[in-house]
Amino acid sequence: xxxxxxxxxxxxxxxxxxxxxxxxxxxxxxxxxxxxxxxxxxxxxxxxxxxxxxxxxxxxxxxxxxxxxxxxxxxxxxxxxxxxxxxxxxxxxxxxxxxxxxxxxxxxxxxxxxxxxxxxxxxxxxxxxxxxxxxxxxxxxxxxxxxxxxxxxxxxxxxxxxxxxxxxxxxxxxxxxxxxxxxxxxxxxxxxxxxxxxxxxxxxxxxxxxxxxxxxxxxxxxxxxxxxxxxxxxxxxxxxxxxxxxxxxxxxxxxxxxxxxxxxxxxxxxxxxxxxxxxxxxxxxxxxxxxxxxxxxxxxxxxxxxxxxxxxxxxxxxxxxxxxxxxxxxxxxxxxxxxxxxxxxxxxxxxxxxxxxxxxxxxx
Length: 364
What we know:
The protein has twelve helices and twelve strands. Helix 4 links the parallel strand 2 and strand 3. It has a four-stranded mixed beta sheet. The protein has a three-stranded parallel beta sheet with strand order 3-2-4, covered by helices on one side.
């Protein structure tokens, strides 16, 4: 059993991918070719924003967003300690200081009730994360941000395709950022990502920054990076996107099936993922919590079933952020989730019989 089955998806769309990639090889515009702009228009329309700007990775999309907001030395950006390191890494790379707030005990996303106390005169932006496939409580976060005149960057690397109160992830704040890393819900064949906004000036800055701060040839008004989206990646994503809305529905059905199967077993220490009211999840990962995590993982391994304990060392305890002077106990919900989380095999192509095998192994 594959932890994430990418082969079955490729079998469905191989012919379309080959056609798309062949077209790029024929026209030879390998950097920012026409497929990049087609993808940007397609995704902006899907999400419901005025602009989409394709970039080289999800990490670069976050960095470019911060650079466009002119975040720098002496600034603070508020985020969560339970996420992949990119979220806080890019804050530090700008010279700013990551400020962590704990996560909600049900959704495992930023807890808005803790946000306002973390805001200082140095706060420059807020960066919530859509962990495991559903967005944070963006309305509450936006309301607090608006009171303090702060922009919000939604790190939607895992929640692209999810909805919040009827609106798509990436269209919920000042800036939406996502990743098309192969394991993500809309995963391509390498590193790539995108930024979303309705703000004319920010969209223009995104485009400048992704080509070394270049406004036009020989004119560089701001600092930038080499953050361009390769045309071949855009071409592949266009082919994959044709089945993406269907895959979102499949992921949601598989998540519901996992919930149904796991709720029936005699394993009282398992906590199932909770999807907030008026939200949907794309289940980038299907993740459970258990005090018995290590034993459950051993049972799965003995049945040749892969599983992963993501973010088992949260960011506030990572050596690279030792200078922030955090200790174990500072963010108790994050620490509980990090100590107990276990992600099970999940993809849009996961078969019911495979889910049943997973559940049987857990119950064995």
